[in-house]
């Protein structure tokens, strides 16, 4: 690894105060970090990327069999515009979303493309991945609650505050997504953005990327400039674990923490190298959302109270629910 990595790498195989504080430190500074000790093997992730590239390699009519539905945020799309301020043009990418999930089982109540229905192995791979990523996000939410020293209430223990807003059997905004940014060859600089600048809408996002397919950049809250997020190899001792997973704190954790946790702006660019090599980018993303009815109010914590008044909702008046926030953001993103 020669490329500089601006993100902390935190080993989350154990839940304790030290890990909680490391996580909190990264979440309150860059708002992006990497986690290892996540429990995904190299083979699982290689199989997922293989499945993703096979799906997107199909002819268009097959991909369009389950088209994106804005009412459910589920299905195949190629028309997303993550930064509407740049104009009406969609980002040069395609995506397959799995939404309306039962996160314990990893299943979706929506129709899946025949590509998955006809092949139980592919389907199980996706379902197992969703269930594991969900459990990982729950673990990270618990660690953040410990780091924030959230107080016990009548309703729940402090460390369960975020997790108590998640009910895997209830309707959630949680979405699993395969992304493909086709190579565009040499383009004028205006066309170099593959995904416009945005923050994510859920509580946190987990992301896998591949070697030599970089392009993700964060607008660093620390350095106040765009910083590339490099591909980082696994450091696991037995060499079996997949590379670190990128964790992105998103809007709802920022609301819950009065802005202490950073929902960092990010985008995807074509690095010059990948243009020269005609390189596509594939990424796999899990957007973790609480229950639709969860109120995005600041959590009971002395660490939050000390900064209250400076949070993103401080002047907004009404506290939004998770669903109200999600609908607002999705409406601005898709041009339907
Ligand atoms: O592909 C990536 O690395 C980023 C995707 C992303 O930011 C998103 O879909 O919200
Ligand atoms: Fe994003």
UniProtKB/TrEMBL annotation:
Keywords: Iron, Metal-binding, Oxidoreductase. The keyword Iron applies. One of its GO terms (molecular function) is metal ion binding. Transmembrane segments: none annotated. It holds the Pfam family 2OG-FeII_Oxy. InterPro entries: DIOX_N, IPNS-like_FE2OG_OXY, IPNS-like_sf, Iron_ascorbate_oxido_reductase, Oxoglu/Fe-dep_dioxygenase_dom. This is Fe2OG dioxygenase domain-containing protein. Residues 170-290 form the Fe2OG dioxygenase domain. Belongs to the iron/ascorbate-dependent oxidoreductase family. Coiled coil: none annotated. GO terms for biological process: small molecule biosynthetic process.
């Amino acid at each position: 690894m020669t490329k500089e990595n601006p993100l902390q790498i935190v080993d989350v195989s154990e839940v304790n105060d030290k890990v909680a504080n490391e996580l909190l430190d990264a979440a309150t500074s860059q708002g992006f970090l990497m986690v290892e000790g996540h429990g995904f093997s190299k083979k699982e992730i290689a199989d997922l990327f293989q499945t993703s590239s096979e799906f997107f390699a199909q002819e268009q009519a097959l991909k369009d069999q389950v088209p994106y539905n804005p009412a459910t945020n589920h299905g195949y799309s190629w028309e997303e515009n993550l930064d509407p301020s740049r104009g009406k043009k969609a980002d040069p990418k395609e995506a397959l979303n799995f939404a309306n999930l039962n996160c314990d089982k990893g299943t979706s109540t929506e129709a899946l493309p025949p590509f998955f229905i006809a092949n139980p192995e592919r389907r199980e791979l996706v379902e197992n991945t969703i269930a594991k990523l969900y459990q990982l996000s729950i673990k990270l939410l618990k660690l953040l609650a410990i780091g924030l020293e959230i107080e016990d209430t009548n309703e729940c223990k402090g460390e369960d505050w975020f997790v108590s807003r998640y009910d895997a059997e209830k309707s959630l905004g949680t979405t699993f997504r395969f992304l493909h940014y086709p190579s565009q060859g040499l383009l004028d600089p205006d066309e170099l953005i593959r995904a416009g600048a945005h923050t994510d809408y859920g509580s946190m996002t987990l992301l896998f990327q591949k070697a030599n397919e970089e392009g993700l950049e964060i607008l660093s809250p620390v350095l106040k400039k765009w910083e590339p997020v490099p591909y980082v190899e696994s450091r696991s001792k037995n060499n079996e674990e997949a590379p670190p997973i990128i964790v992105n704190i998103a809007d709802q954790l920022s609301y819950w923490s009065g802005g202490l946790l950073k929902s960092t702006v990010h985008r995807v660019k074509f690095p010059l190298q990948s243009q020269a090599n005609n390189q596509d980018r594939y990424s796999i993303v899990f957007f973790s959302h609480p229950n639709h009815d969860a109120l995005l109010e600041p959590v009971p914590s002395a660490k939050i109270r000390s900064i209250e008044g400076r949070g993103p909702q401080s002047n907004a008046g009404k506290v939004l629910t998770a669903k109200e926030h999600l609908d607002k953001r999705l409406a601005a993103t898709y041009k339907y």
